[in-house]
Amino acid sequence: MPFLPEPTQRHGAAPAGPLATDTAILLCNLGTPEAPTAPALRRYLAQFLSDPRVVEIPKLIWLVILHGIILRVRPAKSAAKYATVWTPDGSPLKVWTEKQAKLLQGRLGEQGLRVRVAPAMRYGEPAIAATLDGLKREGIRRVLVLPAYPQYSGATTASVIDDVARWTLQTRHLPEFRFINRYHDDPAYIGALAQSVREHWQREGRGEKLVMSFHGMPERTLHLGDPYHCECLKTGRLLAEALGLRQDEWLVSFQSRFGKAKWLEPYTEPSLIALAEGGCKSVDVICPGFSADCLETLEEINQEAREAFLHAGGQRFTYIPCLNDHPAGIRALASLAERHLQGWPLAAPDAAALAAQRERALAAGAKE
Fold first, then answer.
1. What is the pLDDT of residues 127-170, one digit of tens each?
2. What does pTM read for this prediction?
3. 308-313 long-range contacts, Cβ below 8 Å, gap at least 24?
4. Three-class SS state of 147
5. How crowded is residue 313: how many other Cβ atoms within 10 Å of its Cβ?
6. In which region does residue 118 sit, left (phi positive, over 0), alpha (psi from -120 to 50) or beta (all else)?
7. 207 contacts 197 by C-beta, under 8 angstroms
8. 296 vs 292: CA distance, rounded Å
């Protein structure tokens, strides 16, 4: 396999990036289409659903189904859903991930760590490979890969690692890599979730039941050894304990089913319907497995699941947003990153650099 050309290297030259650092964090989220249109969704879904980590069906059989049926029907339907959550700045997931990267870099800088934080998407843009190419051109020699998935799954975390590995196969001079696989039980992460729930309750009042909805996976992945289900349950238990909830005051469920196979249970929307039909009048729903709001939280939960609960007799449905740019969430990511960066030489910015950074932040705040 031929290797890609290396960027021009000047021996002894300082890194060329904006922070003059040789260490970076690659903050990877799932991905998003370029626009809420059928052609954009077709390109995105073709890449996403062709990943054998995502769909574990024999390749030849699956490609016939994917290109013969799914990519002919689903893009238009998905585009209509994306259009209901699209923002003036683009996809919510991309907007939040880019903001998280910027805030995480700032937070680490305040702690004296000169680290470049670059956002990337497993599917769509900015692609992982292109982002790594850019980091190499900046002189980055060390990369901490931080998938934005608190709970490990082969379909998410491992797929990010696969994509990084593919990039390494065509790269001659590799940076040093470290990977964060999970943080489902990290105290700072659980604390940030709990803080966001308490703040929501203070503003909006408290429902009878807290429903914690996680992205679904086929049940067979649990039996094949994927730890995702167990890690979701642990996150739910730890969050309930942090909030001081009784067992009958909270519920873990799973959303986003696809196809006819059995998926992890209980399913979110049927659970909400059952709660309403059983006399529960108010629920609060949070999605702890998503680091940033996206189609699955804003449309599937805050629109479709809301409608299902209210139609079944519920009276009050409140959605608790993902951590997004919540200060506690950024602090949790910074704490996680700092632990995994230990041992790498990270020169602290000098006083002049810190002063310049503060001036830029004040100027940006004044413009806003």
1. 999 999 999 999 999 999 999 999 999 999 999 999 999 999 99
2. 0.90
3. 308/269, 308/272, 308/273, 309/272, 309/273, 309/275, 309/276, 309/283, 310/276, 312/272, 312/273, 312/276, 312/277, 313/276, 313/277
4. strand
5. 14
6. beta
7. no
8. 10
